[in-house]
Specification:
The protein is α+β, with helices and mostly antiparallel strands. The chain contains six helices and eleven strands. It has a domain of 178 residues. Helices cover 23% and strands 34% of the residues. A nine-stranded antiparallel β-sheet has the order 2-3-4-5-1-7-10-9-8. Strand 8 and strand 9 form a beta hairpin.
């Protein structure tokens, strides 16, 4: 544990049966590949990815934007998506990044092993020399019977997370969003949280988007230091994950929400 972590408690690992994790994502960005759109350039990589992720599709990225006015979306660039046959894992490839995402996260060991295999395939077939960004992200959307109002969440979450002027101003809080960017020795932690309605995660397949009030806890840990392309991300993913887990546990506390997620006191 680094000096940065001195004030953050360390929590025992708990597997939450009713976890509110809507999306888990790990990504490496690299300088744009000039030949990405060239016919046949991706054939070998597509074949390699197809062994584990055989459902291939083309799509346009949708950037989810959380602002004081609410949750909106904006179109992004073209992507290639390769999905496992059970639709639980997806590799997303663009001309400047490769990502692995899942909505059925089990543990960091499996996640890191899968992403390492993907990066080695990218290295073999596309030969990127450098990486510009590495990031690990967990998007939680908490929904609870007492969560229809902001006051309900003030009782469910760590009160230090929700400090603000509400008691002084008065009235009923309809929506909040806060973004905290913290530079640490090994990267930057971006913590977004707030009382919102709907969802920040686009549904897959034909599932309708979730509706109703929820509390967002979006943890994004990343490093934008330019470096040689690293096909073995396991150690960094383990380190980032360990710190983010402690932040997550500090945010939810050990009370009613902790028990609702399946934790035991």
């Amino acid at each position: 544990m680094s000096d940065d972590d001195d004030r953050l408690p360390s929590f025992e690992r708990v597997l939450f049966p009713a976890a509110a994790l809507e999306l888990c994502l790990v990504q490496v960005k690299f300088p744009p590949l000039a030949r990405f759109g060239e016919s046949g350039y991706l054939s070998a990589l597509k074949e390699a990815l197809g062994e584990e992720y055989p459902l291939a599709s083309s799509e346009q990225a949708m950037n989810i934007i959380v602002t004081p006015r609410g949750v909106t979306s904006a179109p992004g660039g073209d992507l290639l998506r390769f999905t496992s046959i059970d639709s639980t894992w997806s590799v997303v490839l663009s001309h400047e990044s490769v990502s692995l995402e899942t909505r059925h996260y089990s543990n960091i060991d499996e996640f890191a092993a899968r992403f390492g295999t993907i990066l080695r395939q990218v290295e073999t077939h596309l030969h990127p020399r450098y990486q510009l960004r590495f990031g690990l992200r967990y998007v939680n959307e908490f929904r609870h019977p007492r969560g229809d109002s902001y006051d309900g969440w003030r009782a469910l979450l760590n009160p230090d997370l929700l400090e603000g002027p509400q008691d002084v101003v008065g009235g009923a809080v309809e929506q909040t969003i806060s973004e905290l960017r913290i530079r640490r020795a090994d990267g930057i932690l971006l913590l977004r949280h707030g009382f919102l309605s709907g969802t920040t995660v686009a549904p897959v397949g034909r599932k309708p988007p979730k509706t109703g009030p929820f509390y967002l806890l979006d943890l994004d840990y990343y490093d934008e230091t330019a470096a040689e392309f690293d096909p073995d991300p396991g150690r960094r993913m383990q380190t980032y994950n360990g710190f983010m887990y402690n932040v997550f546990r500090w945010c939810i506390g050990d009370g009613e929400l902790y028990r609702a997620l399946g934790g035991q006191t």
